Amino acid sequence: MSEKYSTNSPRTAALRNVMAHRGNDRNGRAGSIGCCQSLVSPQHASGSSALNRMRRRSTRRRLSQMQKAINFGQWANKRVQASDGYFFEQFSQPQPEEKESDTDTGQLTIVKLSINDNKERIQVFQDLYVEALYTIVHKVGKSSALPEPQLCKYVQNAFQVDDGLHQKLLNRAKKEKPPIVLLNISLLEARDLIAKDINGFSDPFTMMGIVPGSRRTKANDSEAGNGEQDEADEHGHETPPLSPHSQKQGNVLHRFGGSFRRRIGSKKSAKTEAKSIPAKYIKASSVQYKTLNPKWNEKFQFIVDDVSTDRFHMDIWDHDDEEKSVLDAVTSLNHITGLKGLGRYFKEVTQSARAGSQDCTDDFLGCVTMKLKDVPSAGCEDWFTLEKRSERSEVSGQVRLKLWLSTREERIDQQDDDLMDVRQHIELIRQFALHEIRMSGAPVSFFNGQLSDPATTILHQHAIQGDLTELHQSMCQWLAYSAMINIGISFSFLYDILSRLISKWVPLALDKDEENTLTESFQAFDDYCKKAMMGHRTNVSTSKRTQLESFSNMLRCWKLMRESPLYEKCLPFQKSFDYDINAILQKSAEEYFRHVIKHAEDNENPCKELYQVIQTLNKACAKMHKFDPIFKTFTDINYGLITYREFDRLLDEYICSEMMSEKKDDLKTLMMTASKTEGDNEELLITILRVHFAAQEFRQYRLPRQKYRLDKSDWGQIFDRAIVKWMDIARIKAFGRVELACQLDATIQIASSEIRHTSSYVDVCHIIDQYLAIWERMNVSDVILRADLTEKLVQCICKIAEFYVDRVLAQLATDGFCGQLQAFIPSALINLFCAAVNNIEQVRRSLVVTDKLHLDELLEQYEQKTQQKAQWKIEVESELDRCDKYLCEQIECTIDKLARRQIAILKKHVFHLAWSPSACPVEGALKPLTDTLDAELSAVHRTLLHRNFVRVMHAQVNILLPLFDECIEENPGLEPVFYQRLYEAWSVLTDFFHAGGKGISLETFETIPAHMELVSKLALNQMSTIRIIEQYYKNLLKEQNDVSECKYGILNVRAYYNSNSQTLVVDVIGAKQVIPLDTNGLSDPFVVIELVPRLRYPTQPVSKTKIVSKSLNPIFDETFEFHIPPKIPTGGMVHFIVMDHDFLRSNDFAGEAFLDLTEVPGFGTAGVANTLRQFNLILIHPSNSNKGMVDVLASRKEDKEAQNFIRTLSVAY
């Protein structure tokens, strides 16, 4: 051996580890991987794992910053938190994450292969190397085109052997005796054979053998013996027998020989070939009676002398011998030893056949010949068409054969071991797999069994030469790969391997030694899975998807193995898979609990020990939702229920034991002491509450509708008293923190944001957030007490917010933001103002706490227990609303103070806008005003929260609305163009404050009464007189049509328009249910009829009906005619006024109604002329909705039409 390959070299040491357990396991399990952990680089694996973990954490951190603008824990003043010893934080801080294993087997990579210095294992390693080279040198069958040097080079790289040792071992492989090549034949069936018997069937059987090549035949002839050859020569050219019936003795061999001699050589060499037996071995199948489609399913094996020249030949004959069976003839054939005896036997058969050939019929059914060099290395299975032996033969049909080559080694130095080929195949698979993994550089778990072409070719050749069936190869793959689970081989890949093995296995397909090997492998895998199941709570990190998937695939593979018939055969009488899983889960939970108790033991503080125990159990329970779906997928086991029940039982027993302890400071004594209202035991109180929180978290993992042993514990009252005591302490500490936060207030700047804040608001929001988070985790067993404490909590939070707001605004006033502010304010004071209102707004937002208080759920429990209507929920919500309103008012007052300092400037700009020349565009006239507004907004829009920025806009709008309204009121009755200009200006300002959706929403504008009133005034004032009048009557008509009840009665009229005479005919029929206006409870009604608007019908008279005395349902039955053109003006209608006649005083108004002329037949499409149509008009009293129109018209003193309209409204009929 070269110096490079000495037993002390690093390379030898590396290879030695790979070969661990390979030399001494011949009688045991084939395929222990040995010390596979040495194949990996823990530093590389842990580094990769750390990198992945770092990336995941950084992603989470970025998401957190995007979702939440302010992280209270990051910006809160640590001095404020430390002032009370982190009183709130110690309850709500998340527990440190479980320390995860540095080495993840799923991420291991192979960096080198090594073995130890054991000489025996080095020898085994070299023997395996020689076996691989031997397989390459003696390739069998028609295989891939990969050259021999390439295959040898691959083996050298896979075994990491230097050139010197490689050449030495290659020479050793070449010196080994070549293997004996075997041809394996599986005679399956035939079809469509020709019928030879009188019954229309045949009784087919086959004879087959190996036909030597020309050179081999000549050599065999020389060995046949002189006596036999001389006798053959005497007969000269030999004629093949026509039928096997010519000689009963040896008839089987005779037939086969006849066909065989026909198939080989030419006529010129017929005499020479007749001198010897053409087949080295001849074997016959069984007879299948009365069939043309026989099925044999028989196997035969022949020794091949020369694969390159030998041929396989098979005849099919019809058997008609009733006195001697074919099997007897085959038996006689099998007793012949050596070619001399075989030749003599064939000679006798041939002579007998020749003697009686004239009296026999030909029962030949066909033959098949195939060159052995054409047999693929993987074998072949196909239908072969039967051939004729001569032109006289009548042949049809096909025969289905399966042929494959294998070898048998007869090396002198090899011990007799039936499993040697299996063991070598296992080691080769594993060696090549480790090499492929190492070359890929990927983790072991990524390997899916894909080997390179050289490795596949070598393994394929080794399987052929070892006569390993597909079942044996699948078994070897399982034995090889299942031994690699310690270095992280994928269980998903193992599942595929095992599935293939199980699908190929059939009973009795493996011998006893092979089944024993599988048994040991199954037992080892079983033990591994049980061990992994026992430690899964500690070893499997649920935060790592790869580990969960690996565990899931392990369980899937384990289930497949346990429930397979192969496992039942190897390990019978086992309990069910689900039963074992159930037992293991219970046992593992118990062991885990013992481990927890051991690590949490604290003799000085039993409360702290209990807290550590429950908290650790919570970590295990938190994983249940990850494991439970896995177990439900592959078993009928409820993982969560089993685990929690065991933890519940063990924890209950532990607590009972601790509570019954007779130690001085036992658990029960400490818990009672901490819950007392008097005394200074804050540290112990905190520990008790931690136990309470941990116990509450433990309860959350329960499954519904189940009974648990911990339900019987009487901790509730102890915890309730502790919570009441904590609430009192927390209130004091919270106000103390607010005071200190205001004293230590400082400006904070958040990255990528110019919004002004100070640290005090963060501290206050942090206090409220912590307060609520702790309260949400508390569970007060007494519902009434919880309702009282909830109300108390809300009051405390609201007082904290209000106290903070008062302090902030007081400090702002101290800094100069008070009194009558000047128009110009320094930027420093602006920043202080922005920080103050932003702080208040942030605190206001933190008061959205109704979801965290679970008020509806608590209310239901409260009323269910007390059977009374609860008032505390209304009080709690009112308290929150009142506090929210107070904070909003303080913000708005502060902002309003800022905005009102510019009233004088804004009033001046509005005046100039109103009286700017009409030639000046509105936008130009508005520019001084919008510039002033924009300058104010620009000063704060980057430093204010959006809500506060919109509040500033609201304040400006609230200032401008009175200014515009004042402008209208001070200038009544002007031309409409004046108001139209103001209307356009306000529309521009509305868009300005809307800011494309980023400012005040249009919906919000509609909720401002002053805005709606201003828009209405401007819209009316910019309208012409006639349009206002028309709109006035349209509104009254709409009001009439929208009435839902008849409060003032109904007027019945008929009307039509005669287009020929252009006459409108109105027939006043009567009225019903007129309101009583006289003291006698009746009325004296009459109706006034006029066409409106009067401006459109100035020449039409006003008509009246007769007076019907003392009636509420008068009948008038009078007709009136109005000569008007057919074109109806806008808003044209008939106005009916019902009056009550009074002799001594003015007539009283009883109601009015309107008839739209467009509905009268004869006008347009209303109907056919001269057809009276009755209308039942509901009487109405005009509402104040039109008062604005009347006021506008009244203000137009110089407008004659407007004044005439106003006068008509006051006419007394």
TrEMBL record:
| Segments for region (Disordered) | 212-252
Q: Which residues form the MHD1 domain?
A: 689-808
* Protein name (Swiss-Prot/TrEMBL): C2 domain-containing protein
Residues of the C2 domain: 162-353, 1047-1172
UniProt lists the family membership as follows: Belongs to the unc-13 family.
Major localization class? cytoplasm
CDD domains per UniProt: C2A_Munc13-like (cd08676), C2B_Munc13-like (cd04009)
> SMART domains in the record, alphabetically?
C2
Entry GO CC: late endosome; secretory vesicle
In the record, biological process GO terms are: exocytosis
- Source organism (scientific name): Steinernema hermaphroditum
- Taxonomic lineage of this organism? Eukaryota, Metazoa, Ecdysozoa, Nematoda, Chromadorea
Question: In its keyword annotation, does this UniProt entry include Cytoplasm?
Answer: yes
- Tell me where the signal peptide lies: none
